[in-house]
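Pinned message: reference record for Tol-Pal system protein TolQ
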Amino acid sequence: MNVTQDLSFLSLITNAHLIVQLIMALLFVISLTSWTYIFSKMFAVRSARRLTIEFEKTFWAGGNLHALHQNAGKDRANSGPLARIFEAGMGEFIKSKAAYTSARETMDHGAILDGARRAMRAAFQREMDVLESHLAFLASVGSVSPYIGLLGTVWGIMNAFRGLANVQQATLAAVAPGIAEALIATAIGLFAAIPAVVAYNRFSHDIDRLAIRFESFVEEFSNILQRQSR
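Predicted structure (tokens):
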């Protein structure tokens, strides 16, 4: 008996059970969304690292802090995360000193410094929140997608074996197409999960390194402000 069946990838998807097709469609949407976040996060992290390096070079070149503060405040959207942290701390420092001067009160240098440090910590948290956005989604895709694909595989294999009940002679050729259709769901689930896991680990590492640089800058700049407030 010569059995000819189309086992191409597209044919296996179109001939799969409706539930399996829905699971495949869900995995495709998840994978597409995941790749969108991967590319957008890749560009965002690269831009943040480049702008951070540029600002560090400018800051440690020994320029005027007030001029640097004005430049950072002109275009905050494109100035970079570290520049925005600096702008928040320097702005609070200037405002606090101006408030004591206008009130003709004795400056509380500790309060001024604490205010600037709190402003920088708040800006730091905002920047980290932006950098870490969508990482939880990538982590979820990496952990859940294989199980969603496995659900489609189990359902497809179950239907393949149920179809054998109507066949007088069960052969491998009879059950192979159904099993192949079911296994595609697992393959699509892995295709969605593997890049998400790799991207999540890579972005988490890069963002952690940026966070260390931000925190180090906050402490170093606080020391500079402490010396200037005396």
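Pinned by admin. Summary line: Residues 172-229 form the longest helix (58 residues).
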